[in-house]
Amino acid sequence: MNRWNILPALAVLLWGGCESAFVIDSDGIIEIAIRTRGSDPDAGGYSLIVDGRMYALPSTGTLSLQLPPGGHRVEVVGLAENCLVDGANPRTVTVGGGMAGVSIVVVCA
After folding, report:
1. What is the Cα Rg of the chain in Å?
2. pLDDT of res. 100
3. Residue 100 or 104, more confident
4. Which pLDDT score, from 0 to 100, does residue 48 have?
5. What are the distances in angstroms from CA 63 to CA 1, 34, 48?
6. Distance CA 27, CA 25 (A)
7. What is the CB neighbour count within 10 angstroms for residue 107?
8. Which residue, among 104, 95, 109, has the nearest Cα to 46 in the 3D structure?
9. What is the largest CA-CA distance in the chain?
10. Residue 15 reports pLDDT greater than 50
11. Over 60: is that where the pLDDT of 92 sits?
12. Mean pLDDT, to the nearest integer, of 50-69?
């Protein structure tokens, strides 16, 4: 595999937690990886709202979605009072052509 082929996906993973908008170069399939950290984590999981549609999201794990090309609003909801998303929430994700991932970190105190 050519190392230049993975650079766009790596850039999304690194950039996704810091910005409120980013582009995914994918064929419409995004894998959302979520990790919860902290001393009092919310083990019950969360909900993910994508363009107004709700999906169950574990407190740690992944969710794969197929989305049409274009911009999509992604938001984690259902957090315990002691937890918050590290980075922008909601985020705007723009889907293009190729597969990539999004990383979300929830911090609980």
Report:
1. 14
2. 60
3. 104
4. 94
5. 25, 8, 9
6. 7
7. 16
8. 104
9. 44
10. no
11. yes
12. 90
How many residues can be counted in the chain?
Answer: 109
Spatial strand order in the sheet of 70-77: 21-24, 91-95, 70-77, 46-50, 53-57
Give Cα 46 distance to the centre of its chain.
12
Are 13 and 101 in contact by the 8 Å Cβ rule? The answer is yes
Cβ contacts of 40 within 8 Å, gap of 6 or more: 82, 108, 109
Residue range 26-33: mean pLDDT, rounded:
76
pLDDT at 22 over 50: no
Q: Which amino acid, one-letter code, is at 43?
A: A
Q: How far are the Cα atoms of 49, 52, 76, 79, 80 from residue 42, in angstroms, in the given order?
A: 18, 23, 13, 7, 6
Report DSSP state, residue 39.
Answer: S
CA distance 23 to 86: 19
Reference 75, options 36, 106, 41, 108; nearest CA is 106
Q: Does residue 75 register a pLDDT over 90?
A: yes
23 class by beta-carbon count within 10 Å (0-12 exposed, 13-18 middle, 19+ buried)? middle
